[in-house]
Design a protein that fits this description.
This protein is α/β, with parallel strands linked by helices. The protein contains 3 helices and 7 strands. Strands 4-7-6-5 form a 4-stranded mixed sheet, covered by helices on one side. The longest helix is centred in the middle third of the chain and has 13 residues.
């Protein structure tokens, strides 16, 4: 069998704050998950997204240390239209989450914005621009 891509996992320092961030992006996360050391959900298409509390990660990798510098990967969320990019950006930054690059019309034909989740992971919002 060929390996099949199945899960994106992230270590988190504040599970409740992280789940709040992803819920605001529309990820369906069960109520009460904030108190769990490991949370995972199936996304449309079957790939799973998972979060592990740093304390949980250190139970099997005691030398784990958070990365430093800029994120090396970004999760990208497609929005219905350019107005939703702006609306989600405003909601998340208004809730105190870090906005890295405010919404702009990118030369590749998308309305685009970049946020950071509570642990500094890049999270992109995008939507196709109307044809001119």
């Amino acid at each position: 069998m060929t390996p099949r891509f199945d899960l994106i996992g992230m270590a988190v320092t504040d599970m409740a704050r992280t789940l709040d961030f992803y819920r605001r992006l529309g990820v369906q996360i069960p109520a009460g998950a904030e108190t769990e050391p490991h949370v995972e959900v199936a996304l449309p298409g079957g790939v799973r997204l998972a979060w592990d509390a740093v304390e949980m990660v250190r139970t099997f990798d005691p030398d784990w240390a958070p990365p430093t510098g800029s994120p090396r990967i970004n999760l990208a969320f497609r929005c219905a239209d350019p107005a939703e990019v702006d609306r989600r950006w405003a909601e998340l930054t208004g809730a105190g989450f870090h906005g890295h690059l405010a919404p702009w019309d990118a030369f590749w034909g998308q309305r685009y914005a970049v946020l950071h989740d509570p642990d500094g992971n890049g999270v992109d919002l995008f939507a196709p621009l109307p044809a001119s």
